[in-house]
Write a structure and sequence with these properties.
Elements: H1 3-14, E1 17-22, H2 24-29, H3 36-50, H4 55-58, H5 66-82, H6 88-97, E2 102-106, H7 112-115, E3 123-125, E4 128-135, E5 144-145, H8 147-156, E6 177-181, H9 191-206, E7 212-217, H10 228-237, E8 241-246, E9 261-264, H11 268-277
Parallel strand pairs: 1-2, 1-7, 2-3, 7-8, 8-9
Antiparallel strand pairs: 4-5, 4-6
Helix pairs in contact: 1-11, 5-8, 6-11
Length: about 280
Amino acid sequence: MSEWQSTVRRLIEEAEAVVVGAGSGMSASAGLTYTGRRFREKFSDFIERYGMTDMYSAGFYPFPTQEEKWAYWSRHIYCNRYDVPAGKPYLDLYQLVKDRNYFILTTNVDHQFQLAGFPEERIFATQGDYGMFQCAKACHKKLYENEKEVRAMVAQQKNLKIPSELVPKCPVCGGDMEVNLRCDRYFVEDEAWERACAGYTGFIRQNRNRRLVFLELGVGMNTPGIIKYPFWQLTDREEHGFYICINQGEAWGPEEIREKSLYVNMDIAEALEAVREVM
């Protein structure tokens, strides 16, 4: 048993509360990569026509019609939300914390935590969910499950277009619909989002001055203000707080919390599997 594995095991076992913060690196370690071979295999026709280079930047492509836009987006959602099982690192994490007092804060929108068995009331997905539609102009604060519509779009698209009758329209204003992703000022925070936010802030408040472990998994510097910076600040503020960062190539933190931190520079899936083996 290596030193870091035993330390992570002890910290999780002794913690009175565990706050997990997960970013895109967590899903990438589960194989849900947005670049390279996976992107080329699933989107070769879009790449050929539009010159796309990866799924992330493709999401901002200025499609000339809604039929073309939803041909791409339905496949994107299908590949990353509906046509995938729970990834192994998510399943391993669940086994590590399921009997602990924990809460999940994530910027991921692929529903992997729910697929792995984590209950909704312990998850705050701040940036939205591929599985939900909203009014593009947020004319009302309601979200709509989209699995049936997405599967129909994928099944019926031809020549990189969906039939016009499948283009989703807002049932209230009649305007365009969007995926519920935080990308502009129209992002809808519905009642479920508000409950999750309150659940997270309440969890932090209720566990102040206790042995708190902040476990950060795959969080980069794209949106550090959501997970990374708050975790650093909370670790510094809490007398019994401890910060664990597992992230290949980006495992680091400020000098101010060096004595209360552990950095594991390796693939998240391999790291969580290694910790499970010594649990």
